[in-house]
Amino acid sequence: NAGVTQTPKFRVLKTGQSMTLLCAQDMNHEYMYWYRQDPGMGLRLIHYSVGEGTTAKGEVPDGYNVSRLKKQNFLLGLESAAPSQTSVYFCASSSIPRGDYGYTFGSGTRLTVV
Amino acid sequence: GENVEQHPSTLSVQEGDSAVIKCTYSDSASNYFPWYKQELGKRPQLIIDIRSNVGEKKDQRIAVTLNKTAKHFSLHITETQPEDSAVYFCAATTGSGNTGKLIFGQGTTLQVKP
How far apart are CA B36 and CA A94, in angstroms? Predict the structure, then answer.
């Protein structure tokens, strides 16, 4: 039982490049989330999904896109990376319909845009 | 928009002393309040949570209290130990519907001196 797995763990991008971050969970959780963590700002919600085939915007969605084609996977895309997107990205999942509101987080992806 | 304010940003205590971290929230619809502990370079991990219909919850050395009228909640750690040193985040559910979206405080860096 791996929980929530994020790939890659580290990445350096040049401004304007694109990339996709993958989040996979094996807990059969319905809800999944992408957050970014910046020093002194806590975690801020980028996008989230309440089920396969659904996505919605969070607090800071600009510059990001997401897809949830399979229940276990939630992908975060950066189409044209900018230095302001340098951050640590965390994926999380939860099982709200089962009454479990607690998040299980992945180990994070440290992204640097130069 | 909705927000969660967390204080203090840093807290230093002697081993064996108590530590208290306080949060206030703005969304009157918030009904779930978790606390996460994040060690350096690691993922956030849920340590305790409380629902809006409960005023206090305790788990060994940690406890959380909630005052819905004043819209604030607090984390209490008693008999602190060096391994309690970490960054602590409070959070509250936000937004309409049962999406499980969390808004996080800015974090408190707790240092427990041996």
Answer: 14
